[in-house]
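Supplementary Text 2. Reproducibility record for the structural model of the 193-residue chain.

All settings were left at their defaults, and a single model was retained for analysis rather than an ensemble. We include the record here because the model underlies the residue-level annotations in Supplementary Table 4.
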Amino acid sequence: MKVYFSGSASTGKTSLARYVANKYQLPFLTETARQILSEQELQIDQLRCNLETANNYQRAVFNRQLQEENKYSSFVSDRAAIDILAYAGNYANILPELLLRSELPTYIESLKLPDSILFLVSPFKQTMAQDGTRETLSFSDIISIHAQIKLLLEMWNIRYFQISMPNMSERIKLIDGVLSLVKEINYEQKINQ
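Retained model, structure tokens:
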């Protein structure tokens, strides 16, 4: 089973992904954007002031996301490559390049497989928290990224489950309900084959 938590910054994806990784004993793929920022010793203001730096950063984040996902047959990911495309479209100018990558059609099809579950986490002002790594985004910026991710998911007809409530216990109930149903369906399909 591959579980993705998709959405803009400061929506609570990391907390939800860690919960699923712990409960379902799945490897946890941390947000690659944070890894690249740290490894390249970059600051957000560098990305916003230098287009070449932003392009190289978004390219590295996209590549790392694909590499990390390819290491495992099952995992929980704090983001999907779809998110990275939305950020590249918003903060860099390499979106056309990434959309033409030879790996992208295969990746999109993998998100449509029955064992791939994507949760799109809606932004709420009450879930916004600064983690010391990211810049302070306005709520309108967060909404914009969310809308771009949703557009890409809809455009490619990728099934997703929208988490559209701010309450953590309600989010967990939704996630557990979806994952238990998916596990049941996959189990029944294996029996019937």
